[in-house]
Design brief:
five-stranded antiparallel beta sheet; rod-shaped; single chain
């Protein structure tokens, strides 16, 4: 019993001696989190005043946030009595292990850096990548966020995105539309083409230069396939395609 009392007394004394370090660490944590939040606001204000690209701004803020958090963690660990040299060695070993196990995440981080630097797309652009199409609404350190035409939010890893084909639909203001339409062989081909061209030239959403074209793509036993090529602004792409299909059907029915 005496040994047990001595052991409990020793533990209690150690805990009481350790309480000031715990309290100090909690104060450092609270102060550190407040400083991190304040530094984020200041950095954001400075970057916005200098008209830095929003994508680059978001990326820099994320890097600063995680950098400050790691620094705060090291300071608190040192305050709790963990030797800095030992802690650095542990961090190095953990970094190696984490790096080997999270190669995909490191690849995504590197991909995010490449996207920020070379800018294959920007916020607000319409892109097609990895079998998905939509508007870019956010570019983070590890992934890019897009919203597709069904209003679904899609996250694409930056590593895959930076190493694959990306179609940026918004990069050029003008876009060529190609619509395929069919008529039966019994229809007057020249008359169909002439009437459809008249309709295309009368639509103010279709550019006059380059000129609209209606070409024969394929001749089958009973049908003719045409390809209609027009140039439009990106915003009018879908409505013009619908107009072409509707007018082609009306003209075909009237012949």
């Amino acid at each position: 019993m005496e040994k047990l009392d001595h052991l409990l007394t020793s533990y209690i004394e150690n805990i009481l001696d350790f309480i000031p370090q715990i309290v100090t660490s909690l104060l450092i944590l609270a102060l550190g989190l407040w400083i991190i939040q304040l530094s984020q606001k200041i950095a954001k204000r400075i970057l916005f005043k200098r008209n830095i690209d929003p994508t680059f701004t978001s990326f820099i803020l994320d890097v600063l946030l995680w950098g400050f958090r790691v620094l705060l963690f090291v300071i608190i660990a040192s305050q709790l009595g963990i030797q800095t040299s030992s802690f650095v060695a542990i961090i190095g070993a953990m970094s190696l292990a984490i790096g080997l196990s999270l190669q995909g995440s490191l690849s995504n981080f590197a991909g995010g850096v490449l996207i920020i630097l070379f800018k294959p797309f920007r916020l607000g652009d319409i892109i097609e990548a990895q079998g998905e199409a939509g508007k870019v609404i956010s570019i983070h350190i590890f992934s890019t966020q897009i919203v597709n035409y069904q209003n679904n939010v899609i996250y694409i890893p930056n590593g895959v995105l930076s190493n694959s084909k990306i179609k940026n639909i918004s990069q050029n203001n003008l876009r060529r539309s190609e619509v395929f339409v069919q008529t039966t062989l019994a229809k007057n081909t020249n008359l169909f083409i002439d009437q459809l061209l008249v309709e295309l030239q009368s639509n103010d959403k279709i550019l006059s230069q380059p000129q609209p074209r209606v070409l024969i793509k394929e001749l089958l036993d009973t049908k003719i396939t045409y390809i209609v090529q027009v140039w439009v602004n990106n915003d009018n792409f879908t409505s013009v395609n619908s107009f072409i299909l509707l007018k082609a059907r009306e003209i075909s029915d009237s012949l």
